[in-house]
Amino acid sequence: MMMLESNDKKQLQIQEGFLSDLSPAGGHCEFIEHNSTATINGMTFNVMSTECTCDTSDQDLIDGSDPDSSQSTPSLTTIEVLKRYETESPDRVYSLQLSESNDFFQLNGQEIPNNPIDSSKSIPIIDTAVKTLKLE
After folding, report:
1. Across residues 28-34, what is the average pLDDT?
2. Is the residue at 114 inside a domain?
3. Max alpha carbon distance in the chain (Å)?
4. Strand partners for 46
5. From CA 101, how far away is CA 82, in angstroms rounded?
6. What is the β-pairing status of strands 75-88 and 92-107?
7. How crowded is residue 27: how many other Cβ atoms within 10 Å of its Cβ?
């Protein structure tokens, strides 16, 4: 999914303050490329690429399940790869980001096959799209 956002700086600060108190349970993020900057159409963009993994425990997946039950419940791991370009004006923050996610399930200790994320095909799309932005 690719998303273009334009946010008021003051409102964004309020939201970020609120969101900093929340942290996903079982989540972990890593930078997959060094943070960098890019100059596009005379504007400087901060560029960030991350991969986040979030594991959900078996009991979290089934609402109201009996923790003493011998019935096996699935576990879920979600992996999200994100590339984000961000620039600021005096009053606004503009960002273009591309995210891909994939869910991996396990049942009775065996992983159910799923295709891994191959961002080599999608990253060029955002790299091309950001060059077409006309921000004023």
Report:
1. 86
2. yes
3. 62
4. 37, 86
5. 9
6. antiparallel
7. 13
Residue 131 located in a structural domain: no
Place of tokens 């060094």: 34
112 lies in some domain: yes
What does the pLDDT read at residue 108?
Answer: 72
In the chain, how many domains are there?
1
- pLDDT, averaged across the chain: 80
Range of the domain at 81: 2-9+25-59+73-120
The residue assigned the tokens 């399940």 is 65
Rounded CA-CA distance 81/10 in Å is: 28
pTM of the model: 0.72
CB 89 within 8 A of CB 76: no
Cα angle 23, 25, 31; round to 5: 65
Note whether residue 133 is domain-resident. Answer: no
